[in-house]
Amino acid sequence: MSHLHIPDGVLPIWLWLSGLLAMIILLAFALALARRKNLRRNLPLLGFTVALMLIGMSLEIVPIAYHLNLSVLVGILLGPAMAFMASFLVNFMLGLVGHGGLTVVGLNTLILGLETFSGYWLFRLFSRYQKPALAAGISVLITLFLTTSLVISLVAVARLNPAEIREASETGDPGGEGLLSFHGGEGHHDREGAEGPTKYSISLATFAAGVYLLGSIGWILEALVVASVVHFLKQVKPEMISS
Amino acid sequence: MVHLDIASIDRWAHEGRSPLHLASASSKVFMVIAILTSAIISFDLWLLLGIYLTSLLLVRIAGLPLLRMMTLAAYPAAFALLFALSQVAGGWKPPLLILLKAQAAAITLLILLSTTGYPQVFGLASHLFPRILSDGLLLAYRLFFVLLELIDRFLSALRLRGGLSSLRLSTNLKQVALGLGALFVLSFEKSQRLYDVMNLRGYRGQIAPSAHLSLKRSDWLPFGIGTSVLVIAILFRIGN
Amino acid sequence: MPSGKEIIKVSCVKHIYPDRTEVYLCGLDFVVHEGERVVILGPNGSGKSTLLHHLLGLLEPHEGLVRVFGHNPAKEYEKIRSRIGVLLQDVNDQIIAPTVWDDVAFCPRNFGVSEQEGGQMVERALNQVGIAHLRDKICHYLSEGERRKVALAGALVLQPELLILDEPLEGLDPKSRTDLISLFNQLHSLGGITIVMTTHDVNLVSHFADSVYMLVKGGEIVSRGSPRDLFANTERFFSSSLDPPLLAALFKRLQEEGLQVGIPLTVEEAVKEIMEREKRQRRASPEAHS
Fold it and tell me: Which CATH class is domain C6-243?
């Protein structure tokens, strides 16, 4: 996979709520920016690009479930503000079809939105020195590396419970449970003789290794496809990538 | 492996006649929120297994293909599995918990869109979004099917002319890129045409109205299941 | 033959597309009167759609005059929008909303019509077109013919005075074409609606048109007249790269062979023509026929 969709039920509540809040703020900002450029005029293009992203995600280019997400391409075509809106719409729809989540739509939108944002600016930068196709390919590789790293960071953050940390620092007691805190479930009795909640070893390295390894194959595939598409667009309709 | 099949999901919603299909969108949204909340707040393995099995039972009640639904819900399992790997030092329970949470959530959401027409679901969601975004959502969903028809024809033509092969990755990539490029160009032109049409038809900011929160007789099922699961989950959580 | 006031006038319009293709809609003026059914015939690339797009204000001419209901549509379409219904060639371009009801209700809703009044308008349009049973259906599951009817209902919902149809019969089977033509004729006879239609199906003309305009490649308007005027001179079809209607071609050929026959528009007229000729011959030489 070139892109990870975080599902529901995995991350702690405070994290995905924060993601939702951040998404709402950025979405409001993006809407305001887009309205200045006549959003209604661009509404059909927004609809089409969201549909295209969904189509890209439906195309299995290698029969082991690798799919495209075309976020960098959409960023290049729509610009950061509209592309962020497209990211939200895509993730909302994906959440409804079990290909992501609804509670985590904020985080997923931030990740996809970052891809479109980063892809747009990196493409603008590199296309000054390289042909558009190569610039697009490089932008995809860098962008997907960045967002994959972001996902790993989110996972790392998710392993920390702020309430637990606070309580531990105040009382010295590593315990603390409530309706909203995340532990590994019935950690009390998982180890013989252990008392209180079990502290799990953080195997973030294992997680990161798996994600980078599997992800890098997807980055390369996505970079190749996006570079080819940009090459095609440059030949057939150059105004699409220069606007 | 089919990991995203919006067309099939939409068709199931369109053609189904099960009790869940006949229930109102509002009641099913309540059920989904209740089950989702239960999955999120629960950390008891047996309870989560029960929630997961409940979601599978709902799939059967809705007359949906069980194996297909589980396959569609398998994609988010990949991330959940990787995330769970980071907790492997804590034994087998935490990874299983995470997997069950993710799967129960994914299948429940799939049930919503597989048993409810998208206009009703998006119509309810439009209460939460600015009008322009809900219009974008409706447009995007409709345009997905327009473009899907085009890409299907393109892929059929490719297959007939020997342009696609499971053995030649580089060829496939090139052809996919060609098809996508053409689709992007076509979409760009069609978007300008669509804007013209919307103008011609007098678009002033409303493609379809927000859905009313109406109820039906068959709502007892989603309300009943959603409420039961949520109450049990809360009781378990408080008890622990 | 309608003799109402002039509601459309297009006079020597020149349009240059972004790819530098030039279309000159010159020659004869394109004029449509109130209550008329006008068919625009022409081969591919003759500028039929260009002409329609100018009428709809989607294109602005570089030179020339376009007036619809006295207004310049490129600049003042807002003033005439509610008086015009449109059916585009590709109905997928025209259907916007998710369900049949929502799509037909699109115009009333965006025009600020109340939900109740809008509902009545939608119901009437659906019944006019015969698709009331499809009201809750999702548009992308409809057949091509059903989608065309949805688009047509959407075009009729505000009860326009002018209906503009861009190749409305393209891709339909013969039965569907006949049904649609009957529907257009019914709308015209009951409501007096003015209809402008583009097509390259010449056989349609006799069943529908009051006036026919013929275009040639490049956009020149070379002929204007009633179907009977047009059929009398089949050479005009060849100059427009069109085949004349079969009946017209057949009877023209018979005329050239010296037979005293007229040029019928329809099969019924042709039968009548032949039977009358037969009667004349029997009267002239009864012994030969006894």
Answer: alpha beta
